[in-house]
Amino acid sequence: MPHESTPVPLHTRRTHFDPADDLRRLAADGPVTRVSLAPGAGGEPLWLVTGHEEVRRVLGDHTRFSTRRRFGSREPAGGDGERPDEGVGLLMDYDPPEHTRLRKMLTPEFTVRRMRRLQPRIENIVAERLDAMERAGHPADLAELFASAIPGPVLCELIGVPRDDRDDFLRRCHAHLATGRGRQERTAAGSAFTRYLAALVARQRKNPDDGFLGMLVRDHGGDFTDKELRGICILLMLAGLDNISGMLGLGALALLENPDQLALVRDDPAALDRAVEELLRYLSVPHAPTPRTAVEDITLGGRLIRAGDTVVCSIPLANRDPHLTAEPDRLDLTREPVPHVAFGHGIHHCIGAALARMELRIAYTALLRRFPGLRLAVPAQDVAFRVRSTAYGVERLPVTW
Amino acid sequence: MEVHVDRGRCAGSGLCMSYVPAVFDQSEDDGKVLLKAARPEPGTAAAVRGAAARCPAGAITLSGGDAHGR
Ligand code: SF4
């Protein structure tokens, strides 16, 4: 766990909506640089990829850039050491053919049409949160009452956690995922969370419903182990909580800071889809996908990457690359959608992208409808940002209406 | 313009279908792309080029006239 006083790793540094200056200076040196992400704090030098084209090349080439973690210290990249229990089902750490097997069974559960079935339920969740915000009165903290309050219940809806269990489930989940706690406490909480997941999986095996877990056991019951099904649920929580809360909070702030642009899109669903794409690009809340390990020597961006080297791709810099789009540092909600890499690229492209897009669209739309006069309750420069997290976001966002 | 999709590469994002529903569909069975129109109407060429460029798996390729656009 990084101590509060340790510097924030270089690739996660931001200034308001932008990559921090020291990070930009790196990108200016070239699309691929050798750097330590935690200078002076024992961070080993690795390759940071900042060019859009180069990032797509790395993420699109799973045979030469492995995501499989080295579970043993002497194991080579993409090795076959035994995966520890807590890593089972975490698809981003799998290479083909293991990855192909799981992903193939999961993909049909995440189609655009399947996700649309969740739309009314997500609309309800969002409406409930807005009711709560209205009741709390202004000024209200949009980070707490909106951005952080929506993703958890939506994931429960997706996975099929019964309503009455949700608060407990989410509390245990947060404890399980929290990195700021003592190891012992985390293990205890973690086991409470995995015990609940085990019971949920067992129930679905017996009486599958039409939720995501029910469909998986119905269609492929025998092809998944219980451990894998639990792991996949954990994966969804890992991917769906901080990334979405980050997008909801930062996105709301970006909209409030750009009222003229907001006016152009707020009542037009097609324009709003485009605006969501631009917010995904411009805000790039995930700092980096799973680090890759080069499987062989590769030349990229004019640099020689050696077999075994670690490669980290910067999402915010790739999405602000001038080769990707003109004036990349300007938020333009009407921008023609560009091939941004906010959901990654290649075989590990976010499996929940369709859900995320829908959730963001529903939430932004409902927020703006409910509070047409929404505005910041503090000066923009006083907004507190969430820095020590895998996804950028706001820590507190006081608003009034 | 002629559209080709490589279902082996497709990551199942459904992006192409959302973008140009007249040309792409997403299979209910495996979540992967289905081609509805291999020779789309000229009017959709720009949108098809956009979908091909944005495909997160590089699974859409175009050939023939107006494959590259302006
Ligand atoms: S955009 Fe590409 S990856 Fe997504 S469904 Fe279409 S072909 Fe497949």
UniProtKB/TrEMBL annotation, chain A:
<protein>
    <submittedName>
        <fullName>Cytochrome P450</fullName>
    </submittedName>
</protein>
<comment type="similarity">
    <text>Belongs to the cytochrome P450 family.</text>
</comment>
<dbReference type="GO" id="GO:0020037">
    <property type="term" value="F:heme binding"/>
</dbReference>
<dbReference type="GO" id="GO:0004497">
    <property type="term" value="F:monooxygenase activity"/>
</dbReference>
<dbReference type="InterPro" id="IPR017972">
    <property type="entry name" value="Cyt_P450_CS"/>
</dbReference>
<feature type="region of interest" description="Disordered">
    <location>
        <begin position="67"/>
        <end position="88"/>
    </location>
</feature>
<dbReference type="GO" id="GO:0016705">
    <property type="term" value="F:oxidoreductase activity, acting on paired donors, with incorporation or reduction of molecular oxygen"/>
</dbReference>
<dbReference type="InterPro" id="IPR001128">
    <property type="entry name" value="Cyt_P450"/>
</dbReference>
<dbReference type="InterPro" id="IPR002397">
    <property type="entry name" value="Cyt_P450_B"/>
</dbReference>
<keyword id="KW-0503">Monooxygenase</keyword>
<keyword id="KW-0560">Oxidoreductase</keyword>
<dbReference type="GO" id="GO:0005506">
    <property type="term" value="F:iron ion binding"/>
</dbReference>
<keyword id="KW-0349">Heme</keyword>
<keyword id="KW-0408">Iron</keyword>
<dbReference type="InterPro" id="IPR036396">
    <property type="entry name" value="Cyt_P450_sf"/>
</dbReference>
<dbReference type="Pfam" id="PF00067">
    <property type="entry name" value="p450"/>
</dbReference>
<keyword id="KW-0479">Metal-binding</keyword>
UniProtKB/TrEMBL annotation, chain B:
<keyword id="KW-0408">Iron</keyword>
<keyword id="KW-0479">Metal-binding</keyword>
<dbReference type="InterPro" id="IPR051269">
    <property type="entry name" value="Fe-S_cluster_ET"/>
</dbReference>
<keyword id="KW-0813">Transport</keyword>
<protein>
    <submittedName>
        <fullName>Ferredoxin</fullName>
    </submittedName>
</protein>
<keyword id="KW-0411">Iron-sulfur</keyword>
<keyword id="KW-0249">Electron transport</keyword>
<dbReference type="GO" id="GO:0046872">
    <property type="term" value="F:metal ion binding"/>
</dbReference>
<dbReference type="GO" id="GO:0051538">
    <property type="term" value="F:3 iron, 4 sulfur cluster binding"/>
</dbReference>
<dbReference type="Pfam" id="PF13459">
    <property type="entry name" value="Fer4_15"/>
</dbReference>
<keyword id="KW-0003">3Fe-4S</keyword>
